[in-house]
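Per reviewer request, we include the raw input and output of the structure prediction for the construct analysed in the revised manuscript.
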Amino acid sequence: MFFSLHIIGQAVAPLKDYQGVQVWLLKLENPVRGAGAGALITLIIQSSSATLGMVIKLAAKGLLTLPAGIAVMLGAELGTCSDTLLATIRRGRAALKTGLFHLSFNLISIVLGLLLIEPFTALVLRLAGHADVARQIAHAHVLFNMAGVLLFAPLVPLCQRLLDAWLPEEEQAAKPLAVQAA
């Protein structure tokens, strides 16, 4: 992984000289566009870690700003749901519930992240101090994931009840309603 990131870093260095690439990367500062790009890249390569590694390398080379890096990072969180959802195919209700929880968790976290991207970016800048943009993006990733867990942890029992009601176990789903009510 680290060798691959080193190779990516070497490969992106010449991109600083191409105006079209710089213009495109600046467009990623639009939160929705950046998140869309992050989701698409992660969907294709099936690794949010690799996407984030590329974002950090691009930022380290001066090709990506903090707002763009955060937007792409948010999208990578959504793209990572694809492998979880693929793993649920033909695996039963528990796997499907897990995949749907993962998707719901990420969708809600990402929407909140996009809605609060400006104050979140300001918080990252405040906490990361004078660190370079690549390190600021790494801090943003940790902070975002910690905030998501802290937000959702108290809601896990409620989420479980909702998923159980929506997708009951197969034996319960097959019983007549009168038997389930008793």
